[in-house]
Amino acid sequence: MTDFVLSGNYAIGILIAFGIVWVAWGWYLGRNNRTIEDYALAGRNVGFAMATATAMATWITSNTTLVAPQLTYQFGVWGMLGYSMAALGLLLFAPLAERIKTLLPEGFTSGDFIYTRYGRFAWGAFIIISLCYALGWLVSLGMAGGLLLSSLSELDYMTGMTAILIICVGYTLLGGLKAVIATDFVQSVVIISGVVIVAWVCIDKVGFSTMHTTLTTQQPELLNLLFPAAVMFFFNNIFFGIGEIFHSNVWWSRAFAFGKGIGKKSYLAAGLLWLPIPIVTGFIALAASSLNLIPPSADMVGPMVAAKLLGSIGAVFIFIIVFSALASSMDSLLAATSDLLTQDIYKKLLRPNAGSDQLLRMNRYIVIGLGVGTWCVAAFKLATLGALLNFTGAFVASTIWPIVYGLFRPKLNGTWAGIAMVAGTSAGLIGYFVVGFYVAALLSCGVSLVCCRIGIWRSTEEYQWRELKEEEQS
């Protein structure tokens, strides 16, 4: 894209304004954080409105606003619909959230459950998978910040990537989960309003008939419901989305933070509200051919189409929407990953007797470290957003069945749960490199399921749920 819509000074001004507002608000919200529970879990009493907003806004990531258009541009209708199936992760996690809160009312992380339920071997495999995913998602969010600015302004990739990291690290560091949830609430309103407006303008200026005629002539495969790779992607993305949510401490920490009886209702509402958003954001990518746009990278198609449709004022509008989507996910991931590292690595392995003040201080150091580490990796921009994110599908899909069986079935033991995660991840990675990214999660989930079923079949003992609460109280 050679004709940038925003000048460099204008874009920098927006970034500075965002940075000041969000960081100041983060400080204000976090000024009364006194304990690790205040900082990491917002006092464990988050209400329904805030709970629903933060769950939905966190799931509206760079992937929804940038990768959904990319996949629609590459796979057509199936790309759009396939990405929307990630809503199943939120919907299916709803009963799990209620079960998690019941079994571990004082829990901190997903790692707490795996360690207590399955033991050290399965816990080690789970932590490695969780950290690989978290780093992959953090890097993809940093990359998306750079791509946003480079596609909508004269600023370069490194500037955008650096800016969003500094802003999100700043207010997460100062405010903890309270700041994350409060900013998510505002960002969710901005995102939903913006997406609806962009879609309406696309329909008004381009129109369904023009888009259909252009696609039929120039890219008929995008309308082909029997497009093989796209069909595989559709089913692959279902298990990828479920695996992303089921295993990630981003969603477990919210289950622990939400008030009693809130988790199930909020996740159901968030899933239903999120479902149409990737369809709408993906839809605008189908207008690229009608607008004679050829993006230099497929993951830039969304903002380029929006900027073309809305002009200079619209570019600012789109900038704010996508920036809100990026921030609402990055802050959540920074907070949840720092909790995981603090509770599962620092406390369990290094300082088992650490007090609340020590844990709070270490948690903040880790937030800074995650920001620096993400910047170092994202600076190399080794892959497109879609390729990077789908690589992690091979990891996360292997955790689905060990978590589900671990929460509801007492016969699966730690050895077979660990084998399921290791074997599933290995199969998914082989599929990713040998066949394509669109089979990685499918293979990972399938192999993991087989291992879990064998483990249940061979088991002669049943886990006693009271051991979870006894471990918490000890």
UniProtKB/TrEMBL annotation:
<feature type="transmembrane region" description="Helical">
    <location>
        <begin position="41"/>
        <end position="60"/>
    </location>
</feature>
<keyword id="KW-0813">Transport</keyword>
<keyword id="KW-1133">Transmembrane helix</keyword>
<feature type="transmembrane region" description="Helical">
    <location>
        <begin position="155"/>
        <end position="174"/>
    </location>
</feature>
<feature type="transmembrane region" description="Helical">
    <location>
        <begin position="439"/>
        <end position="456"/>
    </location>
</feature>
<dbReference type="GO" id="GO:0016020">
    <property type="term" value="C:membrane"/>
</dbReference>
<comment type="similarity">
    <text>Belongs to the sodium:solute symporter (SSF) (TC 2.A.21) family.</text>
</comment>
<dbReference type="Pfam" id="PF00474">
    <property type="entry name" value="SSF"/>
</dbReference>
<feature type="transmembrane region" description="Helical">
    <location>
        <begin position="309"/>
        <end position="327"/>
    </location>
</feature>
<feature type="transmembrane region" description="Helical">
    <location>
        <begin position="80"/>
        <end position="100"/>
    </location>
</feature>
<keyword id="KW-0812">Transmembrane</keyword>
<feature type="transmembrane region" description="Helical">
    <location>
        <begin position="181"/>
        <end position="203"/>
    </location>
</feature>
<dbReference type="GO" id="GO:0015204">
    <property type="term" value="F:urea transmembrane transporter activity"/>
</dbReference>
<feature type="transmembrane region" description="Helical">
    <location>
        <begin position="267"/>
        <end position="289"/>
    </location>
</feature>
<dbReference type="InterPro" id="IPR031155">
    <property type="entry name" value="DUR"/>
</dbReference>
<dbReference type="InterPro" id="IPR001734">
    <property type="entry name" value="Na/solute_symporter"/>
</dbReference>
<dbReference type="InterPro" id="IPR038377">
    <property type="entry name" value="Na/Glc_symporter_sf"/>
</dbReference>
<keyword id="KW-0472">Membrane</keyword>
<feature type="transmembrane region" description="Helical">
    <location>
        <begin position="121"/>
        <end position="149"/>
    </location>
</feature>
<dbReference type="InterPro" id="IPR036259">
    <property type="entry name" value="MFS_trans_sf"/>
</dbReference>
<feature type="transmembrane region" description="Helical">
    <location>
        <begin position="6"/>
        <end position="29"/>
    </location>
</feature>
<feature type="transmembrane region" description="Helical">
    <location>
        <begin position="389"/>
        <end position="408"/>
    </location>
</feature>
<feature type="transmembrane region" description="Helical">
    <location>
        <begin position="223"/>
        <end position="246"/>
    </location>
</feature>
<protein>
    <submittedName>
        <fullName>Urea transporter</fullName>
    </submittedName>
</protein>
